[in-house]
Design a protein that fits this description.
- The protein is an alpha/beta fold.
- The chain folds into two domains: 2-150 and 285-334, Alpha-Beta Complex (Quinone Oxidoreductase, Chain A, domain 1); 153-282, Rossmann fold (3-Layer(aba) Sandwich).
- 25% of the residues lie in helices and 28% in strands.
- It has eleven helices and 17 strands.
- The strands form four sheets. Strands 3, 4, 5, 8, 9, 16 and 17 form a seven-stranded mixed beta sheet that branches.
- Helix 4 (151-161) packs across helix 10 (288-301).
- The longest helix has 14 residues, at 288-301.
- The chain is globular, with a radius of gyration of 20 Å.
Length: 335
Amino acid sequence: MTTVNAYAATEKNGKLAAFEYQLGELDAHDVDIAVEHCGICHSDLSMLENAWGMTTYPFVPGHEVVGTVAAMGTRVRDLAVGDRVGLGWHSGYCMTCDQCMGGDHNMCGTAGMTIVARHGGFSDRVRAQDASVMKLPEGLDAAAAGPLLCAGITVFNPLVQFDVPPTAHVGVIGIGGLGHLAVQFARAWGCHVTAITSRDSKRQEALDLGAHETIVSRNAEEVAAAAGRFDLLLSTVNVKLDWDAFMTTLKPRGRLHVLGAILEPLDLNSMPMLFGQHSVSGSPVGSPATIRKMLEFAARHGINPMTEHFPLSQVNEALDHLRAGKARFRIVLDV
């Protein structure tokens, strides 16, 4: 038995406090990670609040884990004790359904989720199935890499999923935790990138991240001037917007792809969609193979999340910082 030292909430929206639990014997494909860093994602807040109705308490958040392999089962082949690795939203897959067999593990109906019905990475150790544990390539900053395992793969996956060509014009709605990475990935992919932000004060920041141009979404004239411009719009926000206005900015056969967890219905006029043959879609994180590609791509092109760091002992202060909208752009807990 291994004792894990973690931080857990015992009730909805409760404060996190020191919490111990025991890990049993390793299964053949299990990997124990000695946690060095763990990012805080808005999904951790949503789970803490039980906003999605699937949180169990005591609840240990954390699904952007970076650490080293501390122990592993007898059937683990591609890792070694001491390897620096990452773990994201999924902690394991069934490996036998059509989705897993077809390489779409992130669509597995029974996939294990790192912070659903199990304890996550706000701790000194976390356990996961080997298929979901990624060896980090050389060149990545381990202290900042955690958010790539959730935010990074979330925005990278559509570029692979839809075979986005480097000639595409991509718009990124929202320049925050997801959006600041989407701008970097789309620019490195070769696309012409427009950052769409609600605040004029973020224009220069978006340009510094790699955007070729910017639009302030609250300026109706700027949005109207972008009519017919985008092959792909990546929405990274979790609030309701004037979606019909954004649909007018799509080229024929253009796509609005939703990545932020918007809990309200999307109000859309179907007629422009019919005449423009537009698509609206969404996607969750990515498969293990796509995560590996994303990590290699990030290392090759020097793509790093912009992070702020707190010690794990200050987890509640870090969560308050995120709640207040002060994070620029991702928060990482250092264990």
